Amino acid sequence: MYSSIYKKQKMIVLFTFLLLPVTLLILFSLYPGVMLLYLSFTSWDGYSAAKGWVGIDNYREIFRNSEIFSVFSHNLYYFFGGIIQNIIALYFAVVLNKKLRGRNMYRMLIFLPYIMNSVAIAYMFSYVYDSQHGSLNALLTAVGLDNLITSWLGNKHTVNISLAFISMWKYLGFNMVIYIGALQSIPDDLYEAALIDGANERQSFFYITWPSILKIVELSMLLTVTGALEVFDLPFVMTKGGPAGASDTFVTKTVDTAFHYSNYGLASAMGVVLLVIVIAVITIQRKFILREEKG
Amino acid sequence: MSIFKRSNPFLAVHYLLLSLAAFLVLFPPYVVFLNAFKGTEEYNVSGVFDLPDSFFNMENFETVMRIGHMGRAFWNTSLILVLALIGNIIIGTMAAYALGRFEFKLKKAILGGYVLATLIPSVTTQVATFSIVKELGLFNTHMAPVLLYLGTDVVQIYIFLQFIRGIPFDLDESAMMEGASLARIFRSVIFPLLMPATATVTIIKTISIYNDMYIPYLYMPAQKLGVVSTSLMKFAGVNSAQWNLISAAVVIILIPTVIMYLFLQRYIFSGIVSGSVK
C-alpha cells in the first residue's frame, strides 16, 4: 500500500496521531472501568487511603438487599414509555415522510424538545406538574376533570409515569428523525413497482417499509432499553428520588450510595452490575439480529 | 381497500394526531413563556394561562441574570464548549486518519477499546473517574469537563472514521506522487475533505455539551464555575416555588439553542441521523 519512503513516516504518524486519543480513552474510559471493578471488591469510603478488600460482600449485599434490586421496577416505567414512544415516532415518521401540507413545520415542532437543555426541561415540567400552581391541574380544572387533580410528583402512584412522560416528550422527535432518515433511504421505485402490482398502503408498509427499516427499529429498541436502565437526570433534578424513594432509579440510587452515603465500594458493585446487564442486553440483541440474517 | 387511497379518510386522523402532538410539545414552553413576564405581585393574582400585563416587562430576566449569575454561566459554558469542540475535532480527525488509512498491529485493539468505551455507562464509572480527576489536580477547573468530553464521549471518532472511508485513496496516492509527506496529506487533503463530518460533530457535541448537567455538577461545584445547567439548578433551588422567576431563567437558557435550531434545522436533522447510525 505504501512505498518504503513512507514506512518510517507511517510509524511517526501512527504514534503522534494516536498518542493523545488513546491516552484519553484509557485514562477516562477504560481505566475507570477497571478501577470500578476493583473498587467493587472493597469497602472504600471515597476519601481514606485504605481500601479494605471485602471480596464479593458488596455483590452479596446487592442481591440480598431487596431494596436495591427493586428500584429496577421504577426503570420499567421508562422502558414501557420508550416502547410507546418508538411506536408513535414511527407512525409520525411514516406520516411526515409523505407529501403532506405543513410537514416541515410538524417535523420541526416534534423534534424541538430534543435540543432543549435537560435541566430547563426538568424545571419546565416541575411547573407543569406542580400541585397548586401547575398548569396541568389548571388545564384539568378548565376542562372539567377536577377529579384527576393530584400532586403529580408528590404522589407515589403518578410520579414515575409523570417522569417517564417527560422522557417520551423529549426523545420522541429524536426517534422520529432517525426513522425518517431510514425511510428516505428506501428507493422510490420499490413503492412504484408495488403500486403497479396493485398493493395498497398497508401492504406496501408491511412488505417494503417494515423490512427495510427493521435494523433501525432494532437499534432504537436497544437505545430504549439501555436508556431506560440508565435513567438519571430527571429524577435527580426533579424529585431527588422522592416521595420516599418512589422515583429512585438504579443510577440515582448508585450515585446516592457513593456521593451521599460514601459507600463507594457498594456503589461500584452496583455500577458493575448495571454494566453487566447492559452488555448482556446488547449481546442478546446482536445474537438475535445475526440469527435473523442467517435465517 | 384501493378506494381509500384516493379519498384518504386517514388524512383527517393524521392531522388530528399531529396537532395533538404539536399541542403537547408547545404546552409546557408556552406556559413558561407567559409567566416569565409576570412580576411577583402580578403572578400571585393571575391565572396560569393569563397573558402577562406586558411582554416588555424585563424585571424577572434582570433578576435572573443578576442573582443567578447567568452571564458568568454562559461564559463558562462557552469556554468549555469551544475548547471541547476544538479538541474533539483535532483528536477525532487524527485518530480517524490513523485508524482509517493504515494497517498496523494494535489497530484491532484500539478499535475494540472504542467499542468497549461506548458500552460503559459513564454515569456509573464516575466514582472511579472522580478519583482520577482529583489526582490530576483538575477538580474544580474548566479542564475537567473538557477532558472528560474528549475522553469518554467517542461518537465523534465513529463519525470521522465512517466518513474517511468514503474518501478515495487515489487522492492520497496522487499527493504521494508529488512527494507530499503523510502529515501534509492529512493537513491539506484529508482534513479539508472531512469538513461535512466536522460540521456534524460540531452540531451534535454542541447540543450534548450545552445540555449536560452531570459532569459540571460533579467536577466543578465551585460557585464561580457554574455553567448554564448547574446555575439554573442553584437558582431554582434557592427560589423554589417562585415560578415566574424560574420561568424567566428557563426562557433565558432555552433561547440560544432554539435560535440555533431554527437556523440550522436541516443540518441538525442530518447530523443526528449520521451520528446515531454509527
Would you give an account of this structure?
The complex is a heterodimer of chains A (295) and B (278). Chain A starts with a helix and ends with a helix. Chain A is globular and about 75 Å long. Helices cover 73% and strands 0% of the residues of chain A. Chain A has helices at residues 4-39, 57-64, 66-70, 72-96, 103-111, 118-129, 135-142, 159-184, 188-196, 201-229, 233-238, 250-260, 264-294. In chain A, helix 5 (103-111) crosses helix 8 (159-184). Chain A is mainly alpha-helical. Chain A contains 13 helices and no strands. The mean pLDDT of chain A is 89. Chain B is mainly alpha-helical and 278 residues long. Chain B is 76% helix and 0% strand. Chain B contains 15 helices and no strands. Chain B has helices spanning 2-7, 10-36, 40-45, 59-67, 70-101, 107-119, 126-135, 143-152, 155-164, 169-177, 182-193, 195-211, 214-219, 228-238, 243-276. The radius of gyration of chain B is 24 Å and the shape is globular. The two termini of chain B are 39 Å apart. Residues 1-5 of chain B have low confidence and may be disordered. Chains A and B meet through helix 1, helix 4, helix 5, helix 6 and helix 7 of A and helix 1, helix 2, helix 5, helix 6 and helix 7 of B.
